[in-house]
Structures are given as C-alpha cells and as structure tokens.
Design goal:
The complex is a heterodimer of chains A (179) and B (478). With 179 residues, chain A is of the alpha+beta class. Chain A has one domain (7-177): OmpA-like domain (60s Ribosomal Protein L30, Chain: A, 2-Layer Sandwich), CATH 3.30.1330.60. Chain A has six helices and four strands, in the order H-H-H-E-H-E-H-E-H-E. In chain A, helix 5 (119-139) links the parallel strand 2 (107-112) and strand 3. The longest helix of chain A has 21 residues, at 119-139. With 478 residues, chain B is mainly beta. Chain B has two domains: 44-203, TolB, N-terminal domain (Rossmann fold); 212-473, 6 Propeller (Neuraminidase), CATH 2.120.10. Helices cover 12% and strands 37% of the residues of chain B. Chain B has five helices and 31 strands. Chain B has helices spanning 3-17, 22-25, 94-110, 136-140, 187-203; strands at 44-46, 73-75, 80-81, 116-118, 146-154, 160-168, 173-182, 212-219, 226-233, 240-241, 249-254, 260-265, 272-277, 282-285, 293-298, 304-311, 314-321, 328-329, 337-342, 348-353, 360-365, 372-373, 380-386, 393-399, 401-407, 415-416, 423-428, 434-440, 447-453, 459-461, 467-473. In chain B, strands 1, 2, 3, 4, 5, 6 and 7 form a seven-stranded mixed sheet that branches. Chain B has a four-stranded antiparallel sheet with strand order 10-9-8-31, with no helix packed on it. In chain B, strands 11-12-13-14 form a four-stranded antiparallel sheet, with no helix packed on it. In chain B, a hairpin with a 6-residue loop joins strand 17 (314-321) and strand 18. The relative contact order of chain B is 0.11. The chains are: A alpha+beta (179), B mainly beta (478). At the A-B interface, helix 2, helix 5 and strand 3 of A face helix 1 of B.
Amino acid sequence: MTIAFSKPAMAALATSALALSACAPKAPEDLPPPPTETEVLPPAPVTPTPTPTPTGPQVGTQSHFEQAVGSASVIYFDTDRFNIDSTDAAALQAQAQYFARFPQLTFTIEGHCDERGTREYNLALGERRANAAKNYLVSLGVSTDRIRTVSYGKERPVALASNAEAWAQNRRAASIIIN
Amino acid sequence: MKTTFLLPLFTGLLAAAAPVSLAAQNQDLPDQASDILAEGGVVEDVAIEGEAFDEDGPLRGTVTDESDWQDLGVAIPAFATDRDAPTPANADGTRALGLEIARVITANLRNNGLFKPTGPDRLPAPQFAQITDPAWGSWSGRGAEMLVHGYVRARGDGRLVVGCYLYDVALQDELVREGWVVRPADWRRAAHKCSDIVYARLTGEDPFFDSRIAYIAETGPKDNRVKRLAVMDSDGANHRFLTLGSATALTPRYSPDYSKILYLSYVDGNPRIYVYDIGSGQQTLVTENRNPTLAPRWSPDGRHILYSMAVAGNTDIYRVPVSGGASERLTNTPGIDIGGSYSPDGSRIVFESDRSGAQQCYIMNADGSNQRRITFFGGRCATPEWSPRGDQIAFTRIAGDFNVAVMTPGGRNMRVLTRGWQDEAPTWAPNGRIIQFFRTARNSGRSSLWQVDLTGRNERKLPTPVDASDPAWGPIRP
C-alpha cells in the first residue's frame, strides 16, 4: 500500500488523528468490537478505513508500516549528534502521515548508537536520539501518548563491521509498531 | 461518548510504562529453590602453631617502583595435613586439598607479575611437622628466596583449619603466619587469605586476592548478544550466573558488604536499575519511576546509591538513600551527566559530562555543589573510577581508540596503561594497585576481561567461561 497525500489532506488527517487517536481501540480490524463499542463508533466521515489486501501485511504489523513508509521507518544521526536534519525530517514526516492514517497504532522509537562510545554514555545518547525523533513527531501532530521511547545504546547494532559505514547505519532511531 | 474507548487504550499504555510488579521484576532470575546463591560463610581467624616472633614490617617498598620483582623466587609446596581425613572440600581428602590450596596460591602470585613462584607440582611435599620447622637446606638448594608453608586440618565439626606461614629462606626466619577456620565450601578463601598475607608482607601493599568480581557474561552473535549478570572470585573460580539471560543485563556494582548488586536490566523492556539481593535472590527497582535509570554506583559506606536518569532525553545524576526515600538531583545541565564514583571518604564524586561538547570528567562535592572539569588533555574522559586509595582516578580515554588511563584527582599526570582497540570501563582492585577492564575486539565484537597493574607492564586476560564485559571489583572480604 502506498500513500501519497497532498499537504492539506495530510493536515486534515493529522487533525482527525489527533481527535481520534485517544479513542480508537487498538487494532479494531483484528478484534471483534464489543457490541457497546459498535454503537458508539463515530460515523467516520473522514476515518480512514484501510482495506488490507488479503495477501499483504496487516495493519498493526511492522511490515505493514515498513511497506508504507519504506526506508523512512529509521532515521540516522551523525557521530555523537542527536539533531534532526532535513533527511530525518522528511522521513519523520512520512512516519507522521502513516500514524495519522492509522490513529489506533502505538509505537516505540528505539534509540541506538555505534560501538565507538562507552556503554553507559551510549545508553544516554540513545535516549536523546529517541526523544529527538519523538519530539519531532509530536510537533507534526502525533500524540505523545502513542509513542514509547527506549534506548539500547550500542547493545543492538544492525551493521556488524567495525568501520565508518557500519557505524553510520547503527547511529539510528527506529520506529517499531507495538503489537 | 468516547470514554469507553479511552479506558482500554490508556490502561494498555500505562501498563507498558508503569513500574512493574515484583514478580515481573524477578522474571529473569533463576528459581531460588537451591542455596546456590549463598555467598559463603564467615572466615574466622584462629591462632596457629609456631614460635612467638616480632612483627618487623614489610620487606620492600611499593610495587610501582622500578625494581625487577620477577626475580623474587617463592616456593609454594603442597600444604600438609596432620591426618588425611575426608572433607566435602575435596573428594580425595585433606591431603589432596592441601595440594589444591598451594596451586591456588601459586596461580595468584604468578598472575600479577611480581614474583617467580614455584608451585607444588614441581616441589617435594613437606611433612606436617616441617610446616613449623622447615627443612631449610633443601629449600635454599632450590633457589627459593621465600617459602610458603601451610597445613589443612579437618575439625570434628566438619570445618577446616588452614594455617599459612611465610619464611625467608636465607634468613631462616618466619616473616608472618595466620590461620583461619572455614567451611569446606570456602576452602579457596583460605588460599586467597594466605596469598594476601604473602603479597602484603612482601610488597607492603594492601591485600586484594580475597575479593569477588561481578561482571556481564556475553554469548551469541554481535547483533543478538545475550548479556547475563555473573559473579566470580578474583581468580575466576566459583563462577555463577545470576540471571537467565532473557533480559539484557549491564553495568553491575557489588555493594561494599557484598550483600547486594546494583545493575541495569531490561527485564520490563526498559533500561532500569535494580537492587539484587544476593541472600534472597530477589530484586527491586532502585526508584519507582517511569524514566530510564542508568549507571548505578554505591557510596563507599553503602548507604547511598548514585544513579543517572534520563528525563525527556536529558540525563542527570541523582542520589537516593539505600533505605528508600526521595531522590536528590545532583546535576542540572542540558548535557549528558552520567556515572559517578565517590572518593574513598565519600566527600566528592568524579563523573562524566558532555556539557562542554564532548565527554569529559568533572568533580563535584557529594551534595552536587562545586562542579568543575578536571580533564583538559587531548581526547575524551569517560567512566571515571576513583581508586580505593584515593590517589588516582582511572578512566576510559577516548582518543581514536579507547584505552584505560589513570590521572590524579586534580586531572594531572595522565598515564595511558593499555593499548587495545577498545578498552573500556576500568574497575579497581581493593588495594588500588591493579585495574580490570573489558576489551572489545574489532569487527567480531567479542569481549573479554583484562587486568593491568599501575605500571602498565603486567597485563593479562582473565579466564571466564564465556565472553565478558563490565567488570566490577568488590572490596576485600572480611
């Protein structure tokens, strides 16, 4: 599934997401809603009702998210930095669009570091990176209640070599859908 | 109308973030049915056989001088026994145990690079009566300058009496002797106590062998490492895993009385500091809080815990009484302030901060006042640890590679002690003369524990059953 919203549509979605984010049950597509809840469901004039293709990933899964946003599910940082640069900003905007479209989703932002820092400092630096990504998403209208952050410091690298290229891949903040 | 939906969603989120129950906190710990976690009994001093002698002080100066200590030959034959008796400490009885004790002492004295010990496997075994009356001629003929003798005796109550004697062969003189009563399970402690009196008598330094080390045992590939809390004696014996490995464990610290270990666990999915009680095998959060807590440290008197906490991404250092109560915030800068190590008198704390733009080491008073940077040489300063003697601060120096270095508490006389690619997280021996750290290999990510003395010349890898990191050396045991 691809998403290509215009800016106004995105804003409308974001607004509706704010309005709905706190009241949507988790993963309604997957669970038969209780009868009482069915009665109080809004008429949903703007509620996006994704229609998952029978063969594709389900909403609420990491693969659905990654299929929708592509490489934008992860943002990358310079050595010892935690600022959101323009590339990160574009990726986070794509994430914000997705989370506006599926307001029932909650997610974790994992902060990671490369191995060229001490263990404890990197745990704190990963916290900074996860929070920098979170704060940017909140500024785009994603409710803070939907975002959990966790730092893994240098404990969970994705690139295993000890060189500049691998380190660049490991200095990251990854958004992970909470199932 | 929407409240019916609000409730399930919010309870779900809160449950994920709120402090977890005691049962959940303990889910990475082994079943406590056995007494495997018991830390052993008391080692009781006892008077042992021998002539009265005058205490006339240590033989030599400091081990950090320039003399060549490798030349001091020490003979350590098997410890004798008055009667070969069965003991739970050794399936072959007290005679075989006496041989094992001498082997442990030999390994201890060899492993710090100061002596040239000759162990029981290359020496004749003395008779019990010769322990207090050495056959001088046979030892001087073997080139031994120092002679360690000892015995093991099984008492009627099942405990062991271990006597330890140090003789100067040339002077035909007893230099020191001590004896201990130990449970059979604690026989290695007697060997370490004996090593300690020999080391202390010959070097003039404080003892350190009878001590334990907490560390993180690592297994698995680099992108999926299992990290378990583990403990062992200072020589690697009596090794135990304390956690099962389902949750990542990091950065342990033994309490000064060895009754507890502070460490970081992801057991509830978030990095948080727990107090692990060794006697009960239970653990509790150091502070009931939704924020990540990092980098735990004890105060020297064991009454306070330093920890670092990230609030909205900003990490600062806090102090909380072990007995509970309110946390006190000690740092307050927008940068990362983390770690911390008390001076031995508890009055000051050295810690790391990137408030200047990069990791550097700072000192503050124990109440957080008078914070000032002490490191101004090239490179960065991380994980500072104050020596138990107070005269040095060890730290991870980052200047391209990571190396273990020491400096004075004023930030002067910086000396780099190691040359690995990534040597990190120094911890001091109880006597402040030896440092352990962990070394990570480039590419593979394999980690191992290493030890180096203050000259930097005597470096060795510690034996651990699996890869290892984050060593934390406890104090000398009573």
